[in-house]
Amino acid sequence: MKRLITISLSIMIAVMFLAPCPVCAKKPVKIGVLVPLTGIAAQGGLEMKYGIEMAAQEKGTVLGSPIKLLVEDTQVKPPIAVSKAEKLVYKDDCKALIGVLSSGVGLALAKNIDKLNVPFLSTHVMTTKFYGLHPMVFRSGQLANDQTAVGNVKGILARPDLKNRTYYVLVHDYSWGHDAGERFIALAKKNGIKIYNENYDKAPIKTKDWSSYISKIKASGADGVYMAFITNVIPVFAKQAADFGLQGKVKLVSAAAPGPLELAAGGTACHGIFGVSDWSWDVNNPTSDDWEMRFWNTYKTIPSDAAVHSYVGAMNLFNAIDKAGSTDAKAIAAALKGISYDGPYGTVRISAKDNCMRNDAVLTETMAAPDNPFGAKVYMKVLDTFPAAELGPPEQETHDDTKG
Amino acid sequence: MMNRTTTIPGIRSGFHPVKIVFIIILLSGLAVFPFVSGNRFYISLITEMMIYGLLAMSLDVLLGYTGLLSFMHNAYLGISAYAVGLFLIHVSPTSFWLACLAGIAFTCVVALPVGWVQVRTGGLAFALLTLAFGMMFHTIVWKWYDVTGGDDGLMGMPNPDISLFGIYIGNSGDPLVIYMFTLIIVTFCFFLTRRIINSPFGAALEAIRENESRAAFIGINVRKYKLLGWMMACLLASIAGALFILYKGYVGPSTMSAFAGAGVLMMVLLGGMGSLWGPLAGAVFFIYIQDYISTMTEHWEIFLGLVVIFLVLFMPTGFAGLAGHIRRLRKE
Amino acid sequence: MKGLLCTQNLCCQFGGVMATHDVCFNVDHNGLTSIIGPNGAGKTTFINIVTGKIGASSGKVLFKDKDITNTPTHELVKMGISRTFQINSLFENLSVFENLRIARQAKVGGSFRIFSLKQKLKPVIKDTWAMLERLGLEKMAALPAKNLAYGDQRVLEVAIAMAGDPKILFLDEPTAGMSPSETHHIADLIKDLASDISVVLVEHDMDMVMRISDRITVLQDGCIISEGTPQEIRNNQQVREAYLGKAA
Amino acid sequence: MSGTLGIIVDITLNSLVLSGVFLIVAIGLNITYGLSRIMNMGHGALYAVGAYVGFSLVASGLNFFAALLIAPLIVGVIGLIIERTIIAPMRKRSMAYTLILTYGLMFFLDGSIKYIWGNKPRFIELPGFMQGTLPILGTDYPVFRLMTLLLIILIMGALMLFLNKTKIGIILRASSTIPEMVSCLGVNMSYVHMGAFVLGCVMAGLAGIIAGPLTTIDPLMGGEMLISSFVVIVIGGLGSLRGAVIAALLVGVVQTLAEFFITDLAMVIVYILMAVILAFMPRGLLGEGKFE
Fold it and tell me: Are both A271 and A162 inside the same structural domain?
């Protein structure tokens, strides 16, 4: 009996080795999609994948051929993302890479972009190091940390109940968290907003129990918290803060927009979180409302900013390939410079000078949702909008490859 | 009559003729492969398999030959990779050999005191102590943001040129050069380790594996030899570390994590303990499966778990064991 | 001149139990000394202390007038103190030949040589073959130790202890679980060993002990109750009581 | 908002709660190791399964305390299935292989949790009286955390009674020291091992539903808790219950204080502590293989 098993096993292994040679159908244009499907940011990654898939479906064809998306799981780990990118470009011959959540992964890919030699359009990388980092590296998605900091500081100054509070800064311990924390502190000090801890606290990403950080906040006497967490940790922190009775006393301002699905899970504890974001489904203009319904009907998930960024980013990429007229990397990169797309949150223009997008943003506060087709209990109410000019850093020509 | 003075029953001196032919075919095939296929994905995949094969082999020196289970042997790969990277970034971006030497030397300097503490324990306490030290290194690397780049890993490592005795061989950024370099180094390490395992020193290690207390009672200083075995395994791991950062141009805390450590352990066990080529085969299989399954489906963890459970239950001694099994089949 | 090895009021305590109670024991350069006593008399504990397996609570162990209490085991073996175990403790998966060869190599030295093949250690291999022939095990040289018959394993156990050319050899119940013919074979082997080195035998097989030992020491509850030649011990009242209880 | 007294109360209560959580998770791991000699790497995943099953029960309208009883039983049944299918044949094999087998089991369980319950964090609806906070000496502390502390103390007491007083408990403890002797007394060892493994899984499930709401219920909770419970049982001494209690307190207090004062290097301190203790006491504080 045992011998039978080992022989059948070796046949099984042999089959596995031979199986993966792909059969090439009519020549589609292959685009590599790198999103985290496992690990801490799995939910954000899934929504990004939906956004890109929706864009590909609606765009239909590029240069007359169908679009073929090849999705890979980065697990928010830079080494894995790099080897997956190599697989997509070398083995599957993808013409461009899109997606990526987390600055660490984005920077690791940017370092290897010369070897890969394909354009890389990031939709959820907020590090300011991306400005003019590399001629092949672009950003069209979530606001960068400096734009978010400007938005948040403007939002705080505009709201009397937020203005004269002392803020305790708490970030996730990786490059995006550090960048977001430093940007906010610098800008806040310039505008006279009181900061309790200028060398901000850095919490490990895998922190589950926030009680010791909350005790520190209670001990500090700060009545505001500026938090830079990965989207699905925001409601968790809010819930635990509420458990400790902080909800009424301390105002939470978030450097990233909390995911709607996670907010729904958090319930009433997640009310009262301020934050600037590109979009929320409370934005009501015809394109936005129409897009929300299309997204809801196809994926039955509450439309989130992660999905809409990726949708707009993908549209920019597909339009750029059409504009370039060929799948050559240099041509697509040239076409991407200065391209813009009118999406659910206004025109999103990729600056020709520093390859990063400029778009309007909204200041939001989470509260109980009115009745809505998505069944969401909590939603991000739009309080204010900031035009791109106010937010975006001035565009200078900075093609400096060796930076960061 | 057998020549009494030199033959040891049960051990043939040198390789069995069939094995020699097999090795020659394998090596020449690997050497020719990059020029034939030219597909850079498979070149980098095989380079990664060879590097992790070397790491798995170094763990087998500990587990298969000295009987010491180390949970996070990849920590020493990581330390060496960080040392080489930091040397190239900060000290001198052009001297290739000096950087590798610095990496290996630094890792051995770190591994010695850790080893001295480790060998005071044995069995499961030893394994869990390796977990403690491994997690300590992982956390230090993760928290030391301004030196190691924290969670984003080491960025901006230049690619020096490799030149041997004045002859320029190639730039270490070019995957082909690194592939050949790795092939040569891993083959050299394989035969060197095989030689050491068959030496009197290797025999002393095996005695410790078989029966530690009896080994002490025949005059072997068990702690000293365990420490030497540990240092040898860490040396090989540091060589793999230097190759790793040259191949990938990047190293991060996730390379030194507990899960990656257990992955290396799986390579050794699936490949078959106590035979040097077993872990190499285990590494090839494990990396292929991890890469292949994770592209197939979003829920790759379920299938990876099932494959591991299936293999541990039905292939107890790994590939090496399977080979032995087939040999016995042919004999019957 | 004091003997090769002697202990001065050696004691060892496990929690409350006084396993060995200031034992003064003396062994000279060759000859067979036996230690007998009822179960739990502290015979094995005594050997464990002398051979460094467990630490002594107090008292001293002198070897060639040098204090060796609590020195690590491998140094003791290098000095020439070697022992066997009550329960077989062999290198199971290694071949019989390798069991002896590694013991010989550990004694002769050369374990430090990393690059030369173990086949190259000619003297070690020659001695190993010689020992195998002396013990009649050369036919089973390639067999892994665990596949040997129990009796042969006991012989191998003694052989490994012998491989280090010890000056003094402690045998912990070598004939345990053996058939009469095998016991006879082992008894002759031990007698032959005792001619050139000093052997300390811990044994329950009374007639074998009486037949081959030069001196006998009787232990009870951790202390020596009498010492002497086999004849003195045979008709010693205290020994008979210790063994057969008061009624004798 | 809260004076120094309040901070001290906060820190002490936080460290007690953290120690309690570590204890209840580590005890399960110690039971599976101590009584059935299996180092179960899947223990963290079973802890997560317990939390998720508890969440689903409460979400489907069941009272929290009822879920508190049922969820561990469900995890126990899962443990039984696992033991019968893959753990039992591994009895004769060396420890390294069972480690890798349970490592594969961890991957499988984590993957299935993600498949069944999805990625997003979940929160258990606590009964009304547990949701508010209780003002104690100048700081208000969540009622639920105090309840958790109480529950953990109760559970530990019940476990001690079970192991020391009941007949099964004594058999379990005896078989951890000399298995051969116990089987000679006519006790079927495979049942004992099975029982021990299932008991370990029940404890994991119980820990999940109690500690889950404290931290967060998401697919990654298992992995993090596994490494912390390894640290606890190693410091306390493999297989020793009393050692685990002391170690859980030690690690809980050290980690909370470190997180409060030197936030960034907190975890480095914990691992250095473990390495130092293991270096000088290789068997941990109370580890002699005996199970008491």
Answer: yes
Could B8 and C82 be called an inter-chain contact, meaning their C-beta atoms sit closer than 8 Å?
A: no
Structure tokens at A263: 């907010």
- Cα B43 to Cα B30: distance, rounded to the nearest angstrom: 10
Q: What one-letter code names the amino acid at D41? A: M
Report how far residue A247's alpha carbon sits from residue B152's, in angstroms, rounded to the nearest whole number.
33
Q: Is D7 on the interface with A (CB under 8 A)?
A: yes
Q: Do both A182 and A72 map to the same domain?
A: no
The last residue of one of the domains, among A318, A341, A358, is A358
A353 and A366: one domain?
A: no
Nearest Cα of chain D lies from the Cα of A220 at a distance, in angstroms, of: 8
Which are the contacts of A232, defined by CB distance < 8 A and separation ≥ 6?
Answer: A40, A41, A43, A44, A259, A261, A262, D119, D120, D121, D218
Task: Pick the residue from chain C with its C-alpha nearest to B219.
Answer: C74
Q: Please, do chains B and A touch (3+ CB pairs < 8 Å)?
A: yes
Q: Do chains A and C touch (3 or more CB pairs under 8 A)?
A: no
- Give the DSSP H/E element, type plus range, for residue C91: none
Q: Is A186 helix (H, G, I), strand (E, B) or coil?
A: helix
Residue whose C-alpha is closest to residue A275's, from A175, A140, A191, A366:
A366
Q: How many domains does chain D have?
A: 1
- Is the separation of the CB atoms in D45 and D227 below 8 Å? no
What gap in Å lies between CA B128 and CA B69, rounded to an integer? 9
Q: How far apart are CA D100 and CA B284, in angstroms?
A: 18
Chain D, nearest residue to A210 by Cα: D215
Indicate if A81 and A154 belong to the same structural domain.
no
Residue A385 tokens read as 């909008």
CB contact under 8 A, D275 and B129: yes
Q: Is C165 on the interface with B (CB under 8 A)?
A: no
CB-based contact, C48 to chain B, within 8 Å: no
pTM: 0.83
Could you tell me if A221 and A370 lie in one domain? Answer: yes
pLDDT by residue for chain B (332 residues), tens only, comes to: 345 555 666 555 556 778 788 888 888 888 888 888 777 888 888 999 999 999 999 999 988 888 888 888 999 999 999 999 999 888 888 888 899 999 999 999 999 999 988 888 777 778 878 888 888 898 888 888 788 887 778 877 888 888 877 777 778 778 888 899 999 999 999 999 988 888 888 888 999 988 888 888 888 889 999 999 999 999 999 999 999 998 888 888 888 888 788 888 888 887 887 777 889 988 998 888 877 777 777 777 888 888 888 888 887 666 666 666 666 666 55
Q: Determine, for residues B301 and D105 on separate chains, whether the beta-carbon distance falls below 8 Å.
A: no
- Which of D86, D115, D278 is nearest residue B302 as measured by Cβ atoms? D115
**Residue B122: how many other CB atoms lie within 10 Å:** 18
**What's the gap in Å between the CA of B214 and the closest CA on chain D?**
20
C-alpha span between B60 and B273 (Å, rounded)? 6
What CATH number did the domain enclosing A102 receive?
3.40.50.2300
Residue at D38: amino acid letter: I
Per DSSP bridges, beta strands A61-62 and B161-164 are: unpaired
**Domain span at residue A264?**
146-282+362-389
Domain ranges of chain B: 17-257
- What subunits make at least 3 CB pairs under 8 angstroms with B? A, C, D
Let me know whether A66 and A150 are in one domain: no
Say which amino acid occupies B305: G
| Same-domain pairing of A124 and A158 | no
**CA-to-CA separations, B2 to A371, C102, C129, C140, in angstroms, rounded:** 93, 21, 12, 15
* Number of structural domains in chain A: 2
Give strand pairing partners of C17.
C14
Comparing alpha-carbon positions, the chain B residue that sits nearest to D37 is B124
Tokens 């939906």 belong to A50
The per-type count for chain C, helices as H runs and strands as E runs, is 9, 10
Q: Cα separation of D36 and D47, whole Å? A: 18
